[in-house]
Specification:
disordered N terminus; alpha+beta
Length: 360
């Protein structure tokens, strides 16, 4: 039995009145939304008045209901313009796989050079929909983006609170973001920090609860937010400052050892030192076995030199003729140097000329 009366049997003339009770916050939200949409297109009849908007929404919702849809279906609908913008930059992926891959990236800085095209296009897209200083626009824009991030396979919900500045005080904000996947959530925290920096919004504090996948970013406007010019250098500087709130040694030292070691490994002024000869033998045996199993026999010595080069024990002069110099620190550490020479001597003959060693 059809419990709804089809619109075609009713008059289109707007003479009936319907009184409803709503919260002041919802009333203000609707008013703000209609005003913004009317400014965007004054000829759109749907936003000529609050009454027109209510009428349009109710008619549209009833039509959707008659097609068998429910209110829950609206939560799964992504803003078309938002979807069209992100489509070229996204792809379907297996979450457990990318959750695993992103773990090692946790404290890697957000590279502007690597993501230039996306960041610039995203910044321009946001600025197109957000008039500087108009935080009503920003609130509506956030709600549109929230349809993409708020309820997905990697996040549960997100909210943005804007605290308008009074008496020339800057406007502040609070973004709360709850994730579902530990590592992907942390990457998204870095991503939001970077985007805020490109827009000209500074992060003043970052609260992160790893057990609950909860993130809170405290925000404050800067002069960059009101400038139409790109001013790339200043925005990148703010981007890096924002991301530093997410990835820094204060946080890293509470995490797994591998993250600090990854950073140390990039510094050529440091080198690995084995506490005992048995520790050295254990590691070199693991590397040696896998070189023999997966590598090419003729490249064995070159790969061994690469291993010691990555420990910063040597500096390769020419990989083709297997020549190298021993780092000064290892030269002074007779115990470590002897382990190096002894191991290489087991596999080949070593010659030296003017501080350069050669393998035959």
């Amino acid at each position: 039995m059809n419990y709804m009366t089809k619109k075609k049997y009713l008059s289109n003339k707007k003479t009936a009145h319907q009184t409803i009770s709503i919260s002041p916050a919802l009333k203000e939200w609707i008013k703000r939304y209609v005003n913004v949409k009317y400014r965007e297109d004054p000829n759109d009849e749907r936003f000529r008045s609050i009454s027109n908007f209510y009428n349009h929404v109710m008619e549209y919702v009833l039509e959707i209901f008659e097609k068998g849809k429910t209110l829950d279906d609206f939560k799964r609908v992504e803003d078309k313009e938002v979807k069209d913008f992100f489509e070229p930059f996204t792809f379907n992926a297996t979450i457990p796989l990318y959750e695993m891959v992103s773990e090692s990236n946790r404290y890697t800085p957000f590279s502007f050079e690597f993501t230039t095209r996306f960041l610039l296009r995203y910044t321009n897209w946001l600025k197109k929909h957000f008039s500087p200083g108009n935080f009503e626009d920003l609130s509506l824009l956030f709600e549109r983006i929230r349809t993409r991030y708020g309820t997905s396979n990697v996040s549960k919900d997100m909210s943005l609170e804007i605290i308008l500045g009074e008496n020339k005080h800057p406007t502040r904000g609070v973004l709360e973001f709850i994730g579902k996947q530990k590592n992907l959530h942390f990457e998204n925290c870095k991503y939001f920090a970077a985007i805020f920096g490109m827009l000209g919004i500074r992060i003043t504090d970052f609260i992160y609860e790893p057990d609950n996948y909860y993130c809170r970013l405290d925000l404050i406007e800067t002069e960059l937010l009101f400038k139409k010019e790109l001013i790339k250098k200043e925005r990148i500087k703010l981007l890096k400052e924002n991301v530093d709130f997410i990835i820094n040694y204060n946080r890293m030292l509470d995490d797994k050892d591998k993250y600090i070691w990854m950073n140390l490994a990039e510094d050529n002024q440091l080198c690995i030192s084995f506490k005992t000869k048995s520790a050295f033998n254990n590691w070199i045996k693991i590397v040696e076995n896998e070189l023999r199993k997966f590598g090419i026999k003729e490249q064995f010595l070159a790969k061994i030199l690469q291993f010691f080069n990555k420990l910063h024990w040597i500096r390769i002069e020419n990989i083709k003729n297997l020549s190298f110099r021993i780092d000064q620190t290892i030269e002074r550490n007779t115990k470590q140097k002897q382990m190096l020479i002894d191991y290489l001597s087991e596999h080949t003959e070593i010659t030296q000329n003017n501080g350069i060693y050669y393998l035959k």
